Amino acid sequence: MKTRHTLILILILTMLAQAACAPSANACPTPTPDTKLLTNTEDGYCLLYPAEASSDMPGWVVINPISGPSDVPGEAWVNIHVQDAAGRTVAQFADEVRTATGTGFNITLLEVQVDGGPAIVVDGLPGLDSNRMVMIVRNDRLYALTFMPWFPNAAEPTPLENLYTTVMDTLHFLPQE
Q1: In this predicted model, what pLDDT tens digit does every residue of 121-166 receive, in sequence order?
Q2: Assessment of whether the complete model's pTM goes beyond 0.85
Q3: Which of 52, 98, 51, 76 has its CA nearest to residue 154?
Q4: Measured between alpha carbons, how far is 143 from 44 in angstroms, rounded to an integer?
Q5: Domains present along the chain, CATH in parentheses
Q6: Least CB-packed of 69, 75, 105, 125 within 10 Å?
Q7: CA–CA dist 113, 106 (Å, integer)
């Protein structure tokens, strides 16, 4: 009987220790030697991005930034646009984008999870550069992350793939104040 009580006590203490060590739901991810932290309290998010990238322009994370007049900010980038969702869902926004684009394009929608909630990845949108858009609604805000240039069938891994994976795996939404 004593052994059973001891095992139960050990189990309870282990669970309490794990709960105390678990990251808070309100905590941003911790940077590593390969990543930097970007926190935008006004728009309510934080994320990690590759250390070789720059986040000098608001809403942008850029790999190998170009420091002169140009129509592209760098080798690979993500633009994070935030707007009021006005009560609409991420599925409604994705349908609006597909409808507004019109026919003749091979637009695909893929439902994924980001920071524990639904998101939709939109591929095949027309533009100057191939891009991948990720749409997320949190706290009645639409977060539209546009990754460019997106080359889905590239023979070699591109710098954008690392940026995409890092951002998507670490994007965290801050609680509304």
Answers
A1: 999 888 777 889 999 999 999 999 999 888 777 777 778 888 999 9
A2: no
A3: 76
A4: 10
A5: 26-173 (2.60.120)
A6: 69
A7: 23
